[in-house]
Amino acid sequence: MNVELCENYCNFYGTNTYDGFSIMNAENSGRKQPHPGQFKKGQSGNPAGKPLGARNHTTRAVLELLDGEAESLTRKAVEMALAGDTTALRLCLERLAPPAKDKAITVALPALAGPADASAAMSAVVGAMAAGEITPSEAAAIAGVVETYRRTIEAVEIDARLAALEARVR
């Protein structure tokens, strides 16, 4: 087949193939060739997106199969756990007592009335961590809360100062 004839045909008709032969040149080789039905870059066939609450087809099928069997499956998992199946035992225990995401932390902090009090609060947090009353990650979480409080108070004070300066200028 004459390559030039193929290129001319493809350029004229806006296609990449001629009689089953694909046109490949330097500007489009190595790239995925566009095909009918492929969306243009930046456009979607469903601009509204997937509806809220829509489930995957496979998930729906599995839920339909398990519908009405939850009690018998749970009973079987408990029987297997009692018989010594460690995987079934772990599954049952995870459902009975799921791992806690966060727990309450009790640390004696001074009253926070202004940004200057954040220093005393941080001293109390570091002291509690050093004494082993709280873990370093818990101390970091408390320190984050104290820092957020300090920045909030600071922002309020800056806003009040700015309002006072603007009032003087008027």
Question: Can you put this structure into words, describing what you see?
Answer:
- The protein is mainly alpha-helical.
- Helix content is 55%, strand content 2%.
- The chain has helices spanning 3-13, 57-66, 70-82, 86-96, 117-130, 136-169; strands spanning 17-18, 21-22.
- It has a two-stranded antiparallel sheet with strand order 1-2.
- α3 crosses α4 (86-96) and α5 packs antiparallel against α6 (136-169).
- It is flat, with a radius of gyration of 33 Å.
- The relative contact order is 0.04.
- The model is unreliable at 25-29 (pLDDT under 50).
Radius of gyration over all CA atoms, rounded: 33 Å
Q: List the strand order in the largest sheet.
A: 1-2
Largest sheet: 2 strands, antiparallel
* Class of secondary structure makeup: mainly alpha
Shape: flat
Can I get a quick summary?
This protein has 170 residues and is mainly α. Helix content is 55%, strand content 2%.
